[in-house]
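Subject: Interface between my chains keeps coming out wrong

I've been trying for a while to get a sensible model of this assembly. When I model each chain on its own everything looks fine, but I need the whole thing in one frame so I can look at the contacts. Pasting all components below, labels as-is. Any help appreciated, I'm running out of ideas.
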Amino acid sequence: MLNEDHDTEVSPGETLDVFLRLEEALDSTLKSVIDDTESSAQSIIRNIRQLHESARKLTTYLDGTSLNAGDLGKEIAQSVAFLVDIGTFVERLPAKMERDLVSIQAVVEEMKTLSDLTSDVKAISLQSHLLAINAAVEAGRAGSAGNAFKVVADEMRRLAGNSNAMAVRINSGLARAQQIVDGGLRSTITDSSRQLADVSTAAVAIRRLQDNLDDMSQFYKTRFAIVAKHNEDLVLEIAEALGQVQYQDVVRQCIERYRIAAGRRNDALRDVFGSSGDPVGGDAALPVQLELILGDFLAEEDKHRHSVRQTQGSSAPLKIELF
Amino acid sequence: MAKTIMIVDDSSTMLMSLRNSLEIAGFKVLEASDGSVALKTLQGGAKPDLIITDINMPNMGGIEFIGKARALAGFRFIPILALTTESQQGKRDEAKKLGATGWLLKPVSGTDLNKIIKQVLPGA
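Reply #2:
Try treating it as a single job with all components included. I did that and got this:
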């Protein structure tokens, strides 16, 4: 064999030496490829996991927000329901007050009747007073025999005076009560009606607020549902990505099988040529050994027919089999 | 309560990939770097609900590990799945004979893995 640069003859031993050094360099590179892809794959896994953790935190945060909004919504709904009840009561209040006023007026009529009765009481007490005076005059005429009767006449006169004073007080109280009912209560109802109308307007506004709250609540429920669905999809994609990273192990094993076969081939070459570069074991054995190595390599490869590229067609092995 | 799955593989990438897939799916994970380490872990009292093992590993391969794990008390019915690049029918038959529950070819997607786990671990 001639060296093209120097036109000198090169021994098989020198060629083998260069070949094996080249193989060593290639093997070293393949080993680096395994290490680098392994490191890269593991870095990808860590990043994917971090991505998942971030997504999980986001959904946890959104879930918390959704729960808080839900609680707040319930509280607002309860408050609104309470206010609506008040509004309904207020709306009915004028009619109720009118009914009460009618009842009160009936009472006032009864009071007028009582007032008339006090006039009768006054008349009776006046008559009693006159009767007592007459009795006292008659007792005076009777002299000492009329003393006892004079005491009775005095008592009757005081009683008549008391009855008259009582009738006057009752009459005055009834007049004041009637004045309150006729003037104050009527004006209170009139004033209240205006204020109650304002409250009724507020009740309508509250109902509108509740409707808006329901709309808003539904809007956010829909948004949360969409985010939850995206998160579900993200988790599935993450699971798929983690599965795809396993190709690094598949490729690693493929390269390892190649390195084993290449190592055996290099050993066979060394055995045949020896350190001197001259065939020592008989170069006729080399093809047989290489054939053996090739057979073993192909058999190993056949055992690992698994990748998507290799498993197209009906003869592809089952990827998943339960026994 | 979360189910526990033991994963046995000599590839640190595979262990990382499986651990993360399974943890995200809500499982607890035990790791072993080959059949020998896995067997010692089981003998030490670990009681996983499912074992997923590689086949080609140093020290003790998956086939031998399946046979020895099945011989342990309390491990007769625990599902054991082989997860490997080996597609050879002979190896599958051998694993089946020794008590493997199923055979999965690498790489296996997270979706497929979770589907299979639900089949062999009802309620997971």
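Reply #3:
Confirming on my end. Chain A touches chain B at residues 38, 41-42, 45-46, 48-49, 52, 235-236, 238-250, 252-253, 302-306, 317-323 (CB under 8 Å).
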